[in-house]
Write a structure and sequence with these properties.
By secondary structure, the protein is an alpha/beta fold. The chain contains 13 helices and 15 strands. 50% of the residues are buried.
Amino acid sequence: MKIEAITLREIRMPLVHSFETSFGRTSERRILLVTVHCEGVDGWGECTAGEHPFYCEESTDTAWYVLREYLAPAFAGKELESGREAAQRMPAVRGHRMAKAALENAVWDAEAQLKQLPLWQLVGGLRKELPTGVSIGIQESHEQLMKKVATEVAAGYQRIKLKVKPGWDLEVLKLVRAEWPHVMISCDGNCAYTLDQVEHIKKFDHFRLLMIEQPLWSDEIFLHSLLQHELNTGLCLDESILNARHALAAIELKACRFLNVKLGRVGGFTEAIRVHDVARAAEVQVWCGGMLESGIGRSHNLALSTLAAFSLPGDVSASARYWHEDIIEPEVTVSAQGTITVSDAVGRGYALREGLIERLTVRKETIQG
């Protein structure tokens, strides 16, 4: 398939509610979208980098620069066999995985359309009904948090993930567990803790959590293995896992019992599938994390979540939790049982609201082949 041109655009979407983690608070998303124009079809990808280089080194602006100056020119006008080949054809740019994922995933979408296949089938998915959970950010008060949790439990979500940080953890977990003794609960530290806080973190064991996600530094696997040895609750690694090699190292070191797989963090579908395969071979459970994506990124997350080892509820929740209007139709919805039915439509499975996308666009540039 020949890539005739690539369009980059930035859209701005206000969140229904601000979302706070240990990194800070987000009220509006600056989202970079990539369109691959290929033999009469348009494949779409989404860069999941944040507005600031806090979650990782990338940001919306660094991704725009790398895509415009290096990645898009290397692909425009070129012939590719598949989305998987796109990962092999990336130029010698170190890092910038979220920028690379936006382009690679757009190529996968284009390939699925050209082959008249749903994207989830093209990536090797098996399941049509996906269990889903929800991530709840740090709130202004305990009362506000309890109202949020009550809303999501009533909506049917199968797993509640609570963002935590020192000073917003033990009391929060105690309150939520006391109110909902049978709900599946996990927590996410987003690297906010250090190993010298091990005695504090060990108290998390009291709350029967599914997992504790990424409590320590993003670049640290070995110290997570030391921490896991001290805990009854399983750790889950997110920021530390940038590729399948990291996943294998974490598993061999017994640094975690779960893996969060994010398409942007690992560089796209090809590497995400490799991480999945490593985890599956080791019988380690994986699930798909979220990055406040629009419907385009959300549709890609759904496709990834159909792979066999994605047995746990992911963060792929309903569009309406985040956006007054999503840029896809139909919007992603969650059943009363906390599941999402995967679309059989060709490609990513959702049509685009192109008029809305144009209205939300603040900059746009096309790189010709």
